[in-house]
User: What shape does this take?
Amino acid sequence: MNVLTSEELIKQVNPDNIRLKEDFLSYLRSVQRSPKTIYCYENDLDIFFVWNAQHNRNKFFPQISKRDLVAYQYWLLNENGNSPARVRRLKSTISSLSNYIETICDDEPEFKDFRSIVKKVENPVNQPVREKTVLKDEQLDALLDHLVEKKKYDKACMLALAMCSGRRKAELVRFKVSYFDDANIIYGSLYKTPEAVKTKGRGNGKFIHCYTLRHKFKPYLDMWLAEREKRGIESEWLFPRKDDLNEHLKPETLNSWANTFTKFLGVDFYWHCLRHYFTTHLVRMGLPDGVIQDIIGWSSADMLRLYTDIPVDEQIGKYFDENGIKTVDKASISDL
Assistant: This one.
């Protein structure tokens, strides 16, 4: 990650732009955007306004031209080495600020006749900066065995939880020990959280009940709980912070764990690839699309195509043999 801003650099930004940024962030809070979303907007705007101060005569935002935006996009891509996806994200934030001015500030003299121009500047071609990682059962089982051998029971438990629930980083750290009581087992094969867990979503996020495949996860859960008892760890959180047992682990901590897993696997490991792994496992088990949608908590089953890592030939091969088209029985949750 490139460090593009600092307190010293932000002090150089046009005060009118600082005020505009703060007003925009206050607006986002008033419509209940999540703190994380607001943080990202602020960071993106700081990058633009610092660039504007250093390379574009510190113009007041309404005076920014299309040619200025082209120069900013060129700088991001060719001088700062940002990916096309990152450039799109940064431009999207500028576009949101522009929409705020058009909608909320249109009755103020300094913004008279202002119109958003961001979308008039063509985005760079969106090319992936890293190859998608598709992990096999053998690779993950080997990593789990390695972590257990090294007595890294917390990491093994977290890895197994991600494999068996498909949850995002920010959700994984919010799981509580009480979620994995036997009373929360349904159909003999799934842990269902007794309370809704905060997940990604507009505003303050949405809350859903999360499901975890019991049989694969349970051995690693038991090892971690035994280790917690041995260490005298008493916390409602399954993965508490070392310096404050009343708080759950920070999602950022999982980034360093991912680096460790990458070194062992020899391929790029990132936690979101296990969301793909989990979805793919459910598809291979033959669960109906609607059931998978409910388990993962998607609003649409269209996400299945995006998150399923099964080769096309393998998917087609499920329905054909030497006799032609064959009937494939759908599985149920109890089959898990």
In short: The mean pLDDT is 91. The first helix runs from residue 7 to 10. The radius of gyration is 24 Å. Residues 7-120 form one domain.
